[in-house]
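Supplementary Note 3. Input sequence used for the single-chain structure prediction.
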Amino acid sequence: MVVHVGFDRADTDVRAAEHWFVELLGDQLDRVVACTHLLRVPSPHVAFSIALPSGVEVDLPPVPDGLAAAADLAREEHLSGQGGRAFAYPGRAALVGELTVAELLSRSAIERVTVMGGAPPKPDTLVHTRDHVRPMWMSGRLTLVTLPHTGGRIAPFEMPEEIPCCSLH
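The predicted structure, written as discrete structure tokens, is reproduced below.
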């Protein structure tokens, strides 16, 4: 059985929020699927969702007053597979360097790889991971969105160092 939980601290910095959550997860990091959600209510901020399989417990602090609805929204997006960007998931640590699409899918919880503006990649297409692979829930599947890269390879759409102006819109 998997329990889905939404959590919110009204974070405004995605990196800092992820860092805090990774520290909280500790050795459970590769056993859960934890996501960030960029929400606009009650104001632009980062919320979390986490899927906890049986036997995994995380000691989350209480959600502050006024953020329960946002935490519930994050939970529902994750539960429905319609939203959330995964920063912790089974197999994440194995997605370094260059891998084929088939290797990436077999080593991790990622279920699908897409290419923006292109046809679906073939199983032997090389993925230049940049050691930063952040799939998103799309249509019920954990999906890595990629872009064409040099030499016929593809690379994750999200860069390791995102531009600050784009972090909350």
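The radius of gyration is 16 Å. The chain has three helices and ten strands.
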